[in-house]
Specification:
This protein has 12 helices and 13 strands.
């Protein structure tokens, strides 16, 4: 049951905590109001951030919430993967005075958002069937959502007669698999600091910096940059430099990982790319080697050529998905 303020939704990542009040629009679809983004590091706990948001928004009659979190949701205890916040769901519900609080994985929220995305909310990357992949225009389909941000999120979506079946995964933590001799040398360099190298170790914000440092090690150069933003800035300033090559390789590796995710999930109807880094690197993803690596799957290349990849341009897909999930309860 909703109230005049609606219900509270949140999208909690490693860096930012986004909040909104959610409800149903005139057509019955999820609607967001009073959207605010807070820096997670500015608050000691998630409860403190949520209380501050509620005070800022002036909402006094909120009785339930749906929070999307960058963490496995396997019980009452939650630990945000790339964020120091840890909490009990039951204790958080009590602290916020809510009658009900549902926790879902952040990419489960992206999956719940996908059936509500329209043509203006997505940008096609490369070939495939293009906008034929839009889940909002189909009753049945099988999709995978993934994207680099503070971490590397992965989720699955099956539509069956218009009903969403969402798969919560931690697919970003599968092991990184090099496909060229040069990438093997990068892996060997990464092994010196990380006994296990996951896909997220390269395909995330920190991963971009890890990749830069590994390239420096292979090329015999001393790494001078200390933040992923510096890598992107130097790549833009020096299109023929090492950082530009780093960005290009990042896009290629992301394409290869996306193709692997399609094979693992049987997501023949399309890939939806989310994450803040996707938007920042959209031009590089469109013109670079993302699509060729996505399709380069040996005997399955003809099949992958038909699979569309759509970058999500909607400004708040996590909140939209949390709202959509809340309307199902």
């Amino acid at each position: 049951m909703t109230t005049p303020s609606g219900f509270l939704v949140a999208d909690i990542g490693g860096t930012n905590a986004r909040f909104a009040l959610a409800g149903r629009d005139a057509s019955g679809r999820p609607e967001l109001r009073a959207i605010r983004e807070l820096r997670a590091a500015a608050y000691p706990t998630l409860a403190a951030a949520a209380r501050d948001y509620l005070a800022q928004s002036g909402a006094t009659d909120v009785h339930r919430g749906v929070f999307a979190v960058a963490s496995p949701v396997t019980g009452d205890a939650i630990k945000i993967t790339n964020n120091p916040w840890a909490f009990s769901t039951r204790a958080l519900q009590a602290e916020l005075g809510l009658d009900a609080l549902l926790l879902i994985n952040d990419f489960a929220a992206i999956a719940h958002a996908v059936p509500h995305l329209h043509r203006e909310d997505v940008v096609a990357i490369g070939g495939g069937a293009g906008h034929a992949a839009l889940a909002s225009e189909r009753r049945d389909g099988h999709y995978v959502m993934l994207g680099p941000g503070t971490g590397l999120g992965v989720g699955g979506l099956m539509l069956r007669d218009g009903e969403p079946l969402v798969l919560e995964t931690e697919g970003g933590h599968v092991g990184f698999a090099p496909t060229t001799p040069y990438e093997l040398r990068l892996l060997e360099a990464l092994w010196r600091e990380h006994p296990r190298v996951s896909a997220e170790r390269l395909l995330s914000g920190q991963g971009l910096l890890n990749l830069y440092r590994a390239i420096c090690a292979v090329e015999g150069q001393t790494p001078e940059l200390t933040a992923p933003e510096q890598v992107s800035e130097q790549a833009a300033a020096m299109p023929d430099g090492l950082c530009a090559r780093c960005i290009a390789l990042f896009c290629e590796l992301l394409g290869g990982f996306a193709g692997d995710a399609v094979l693992m999930h049987g997501a023949w109807d399309g890939v939806y790319l989310a994450g803040g880094i996707t938007q920042k690197l959209l031009a590089s993803l469109q013109r670079g080697g993302f699509r060729s690596r996505f399709e380069a799957k040996g005997r399955f290349e003809p099949l992958l050529k038909r699979v569309p990849v759509l970058a999500i341009a909607h400004p708040q897909p996590g909140l939209l998905g949390a709202a959509a999930r809340g309307l199902l309860t």
